[in-house]
Amino acid sequence: MKQIIHEMQDMTYLSWAKTRNSSGTAGSFLKAYEEGTEGKTYYKLSNYDAWKGITGHECVNEIIVDRLLTVLGIEHLSYQLIHALVQIDQKRCETWLCASRDFKQRGESKIALDAYYQAERLPDESPMDFCIRSGWEETVYEMLVVDFLILNRDRHGANMEVLRNPRQKTIRLAPLFDHGLSLLSRCESIEDMLHEDVMADKPVQCFVGSRSSLENVKRIPADRRPHLNPLSLSDRPILLEGLSDALDQRWLDRIWEMIWGRWQVYENLCNKG
User: Fold this and answer.
1) Residue 243 sits in which domain range?
2) pLDDT (tens digit, 9 = 90+) per residue, 45-63?
């Protein structure tokens, strides 16, 4: 699958449903899907405001994080970025949207981790302890590292899913997905972005951890820290290639500054033991 489609696609046939932005800020995230010969394809747009239109760049973030996780060697949902013409509230709009395929295997059903935790937890068992008991320790620790690198502020209990196959009696965590509300998505203008402290430890939402992404990484036992493929300066073009049509180069430059700076913090933490 071609990861970026630069040629404008007429996708005005899609019907968009609104999902409120869970961070409490104004706006919505619009989602759609269509059935095909290979199953469902899911689409989503960046932050949408009924007056201002599509104002965010969360879809570009998904591609950058997709590439980052590939470099680091972490299982994840793959995304496609599409330059498209869409129709919302009877208005046509040129934008960039994300597409992804269903990650469920045949026979699997899904349930949000927070709902599964409520149903299956032991008395006084924390979400993290529940995940460790369920055998998902490695995946959760990888997620906490990634969420620190990208300052993901939206890892609520439904942005982690449990996949169950009753016939085969298997239960697993879904691959990592939904990283749009990360990186510099808080910034609403170039001026905001240029003055943003990309190393600041700002409050995040994390179902299995605390409000600090840095503290979440520090709490991983030293002997259990994920052994990831190292990030290097040569990975910069891999993460950002082909995205300057969708997002101002100044944003891309600062996004790399953010990821690289945070990776060095994680490396230093690992080297200290």
Assistant:
1) 109-272
2) 999 888 888 888 999 999 9
